[in-house]
Amino acid sequence: MSERPPISPRSPRAALEPEQVPPPPRRSERARNPFVVVGNAIFTILIILMIGAGTVYYYGRQILETPGPLKEDKIVNIPARAGKRDIADVLLREGVINVNPWAFIGGVFALKASSDLKPGEYSFQKNASLRDVIATIVEGKVVQHAVTIPEGLTSEQIVTRLLDNDIFAGSVREIPREGTLLPETYKFPRGTTREQVIQRMQQTQKRVLAEIWERRNPDVLVRSPEQLITLASIIEKETGRADERSRVAAVFTNRLRQRIKLQSDPTIIYGLVGGKGTLGRPIKRSEITQPSPYNTYVIEGLPPGPIANPGRASLEAAANPARTRDLFFVADGTGGHAFTETYDAHQKNVAKLRAMEKQIQNDTVEPSEDAPPPTAAGASADTNPTAATPRPAGQKKPPRPATPPAPATAPSPAPGRQGAAQSTTTPPVVQR
């Protein structure tokens, strides 16, 4: 058995004192190196940052990719000069996003889109994620509004339509020259200035006119693109049917070739009211013979300028009229027109139209005993037969040997068009 060490007696005071613990071993000189200490601190910080970045990336990606709250596509306007916080507030108010505005701002920074956000009107798709929303604004593909300008309107009427449309901004300095705007369907973003709209319509008209002029029939009688527009504007106001434009163009071309007055009612109206386009009452007999640069019952050939802004189809018809010998046309009662080469055949068509109008009137309204009978075709003593032209509703005079009556049952004309349709329920009345 091993012997236990002898117990040394201790004094009471010594027994109360703690035993001396040996000091810990000293760290090596390498561990105490300041570079090692700094390196360890940096490594620890990097680990913490990596963990934090991973967490932010994970949750940030969830925020960016999670489908949004929109239940259906929605158009939202981002105002000009709006900051990132303003845009976030608009999107949140419109229900496009449902995250905190600061989350939106964070997403913008994460996608490096801070300087690429563009104002405008945007269409956000159903359930668009935050990433999709930001991408839509960055791409700048704003909503394009379709604006249709009908054929046959005057420049003043077109400007009025632009001023009444609230998607455009700004004013119009002056009314464009007649015939310089191309009626068509255009697409513009909200906020486009009205001057820009007019410039685009003028540029399109120049391009289309140049193309049509290059392809014109070499036998066409008009001598310049400007005269082509003038003839096309008369065709535009005379018929709204696509299948008749070239034949109406042939009638006027044949009359120009034979030096016969065109005698087109829409030219009288333009001479009376100018760019307003609509007379608002029947043409008076005195106005038919009233001298005017635009009155083709008085002047020879074409008027001095267009009476409206013709569309592409009417320009094509004027440049390439049908090959016919027609000199007259009158409504046939079915929505179209009857074309003839001789005055006698034309008078028969006028008589048919008048009989049809009278029958329709008898079927709808019982005539009064003292009501005057409908004017018979050829009642006038005019001995100079000229082209038949359809009359606008409420602006037709009784047929004369020189002038055929308006169409009877043509379809309703396009807005702004005159001379393309005539009601069948009431005979025309001429104011003296």
Automatic annotation (TrEMBL):
The chain crosses the membrane at residues 35-59. Its EC number is 4.2.2.29. Residues 420-432 have a biased composition (Polar residues). It is found in: Cell inner membrane. InterPro entries: MLTG-like. Its main location: membrane. This is Endolytic murein transglycosylase.
